[in-house]
């Protein structure tokens, strides 16, 4: 994923992220933004210690450390597409999202992904 593709994907959903009353992007646009940001996280924080899941669009492994090979990974972050994009754009703090229940973070290393946020800032109208 190059920087231009990431920027275009995030720009396409920025109005919706900045204004919850704005029209929700179509499935393909939303999916492109989720995949672009999650795959960028995996590229800037390479590894296999934490699995980030944003159903139904993507699951990536990231963060250096022990690799799991079977079953459910020991460190998992899971959330919905909008919450993920709010995290990825810096509009929502990881700890606040976990406290509110919008993000499920299991395992001692799951919270480490917060150090790589934001991945891309939203375009301001």
Task: Describe the structure in your own words.
- With 125 residues, the chain is an alpha+beta fold.
- It contains 4 helices and 4 strands.
- Strands 2-1-3-4 form a 4-stranded mixed β-sheet.
- A hairpin with a 3-residue loop joins strand 1 and strand 2 (58-62).
- Helix 1 packs across helix 2 and helix 2 (27-44) packs across helix 3.
- It is globular and about 40 Å long.
- It starts with a helix and ends in a 19-residue tail after the last strand.
- The mean pLDDT is 93.
Strand order of the largest sheet: 2-1-3-4
- This entry's quaternary arrangement is single chain
Question: Topology as H/E string?
Answer: HHEEEHHE
- From the spread of the alpha carbons, the general shape counts as globular
First and last CA, distance: 24 Å
Please describe the topology of this protein.
Elements: H1 3-18, H2 27-44, E1 50-54, E2 58-62, E3 76-79, H3 81-88, H4 94-100, E4 103-106
Helix pairs in contact: 1-2, 2-3
What is this entry, summarized?
Helix content is 39%, strand content 14%. By secondary structure, it is of the alpha+beta class. α1 (3-18) crosses α2.
Keywords:
125 residues; alpha+beta; four-stranded mixed β-sheet; 4 strands
